[in-house]
Amino acid sequence: MESLLRDIRACTICKDHLPNDPLPVVYASEKSKILIVGQAPGRLVHETGIPWNDPSGNRLRDWLEVDRDLFYNEDVFALIPIGFCYPGTGDSGDYPPRKECAPQWHQQLSEAMPNIELTLLIGAYAQKYYLGSDMKKT
């Protein structure tokens, strides 16, 4: 797992499509029990390198009724986006996650986390990637 995380954090597969230098953001451990798959880091997450370190993360932790210490305990929560780097902002909000990341890294991460008991798919991009044609409208 350490080698895989090092490879992900050094990834530059989509650098030509990003507004900033790549900063892949991922928290995971081979002991993780809960996998949260999000969309892509926002600007604040890109600046800090900490996933869900923004108002959406505050809201998610409130919904889950967990504090920051538990949420950022990699032995409990794996925090993995569909696109690992901040994609930039357009006229109507952040751009969609880059499409290169999930096919490159998600299967390897899944295989390295055998203790996952619950997966939460946050957002349409995560749901579409994992559910495909089984995705329902909400």
Please outline the helices and strands.
Elements: H1 2-9, E1 34-38, H2 43-48, H3 55-64, H4 68-71, E2 77-81, E3 89-90, E4 93-94, H5 101-112, E5 118-121, H6 124-131
Parallel strand pairs: 1-2, 1-5
Antiparallel strand pairs: 3-4
Key terms:
138 residues; alpha/beta; Uracil-DNA Glycosylase, subunit E; three-stranded parallel β-sheet; two-stranded antiparallel sheet; 5 strands; globular
Quick take:
The chain has 6 helices and 5 strands. It is of the alpha/beta class.
Count of helical regions:
6
What's the gyration radius in Å?
Answer: 14 Å
**Number of DSSP-assigned strands:** 5
Q: Which percent band covers the strand fraction?
A: 5-15%
What is the architecture at the second tier of CATH? 3-Layer(aba) Sandwich
Major sheet: order of its strands? 2-1-5
- CATH third-tier fold name: Uracil-DNA Glycosylase, subunit E
Structural class: alpha/beta
What is the mean predicted local confidence, pLDDT?
Answer: 94
Poorly predicted ranges? none
Look at the structure and name the CATH superfamily.
Uracil-DNA glycosylase-like domain
List the helices and strands in order.
HEHHHEEEHEH
Overall description:
Helices cover 35% and strands 13% of the residues. It contains six helices and five strands. It has helices spanning 2-9, 43-48, 55-64, 68-71, 101-112, 124-131, and strands at residues 34-38, 77-81, 89-90, 93-94, 118-121. The strands form two sheets. Strands 2-1-5 form a three-stranded parallel sheet. The protein has a two-stranded antiparallel sheet with strand order 3-4. The protein is globular, with a radius of gyration of 14 Å. The model has no long low-confidence stretch (mean pLDDT 94).
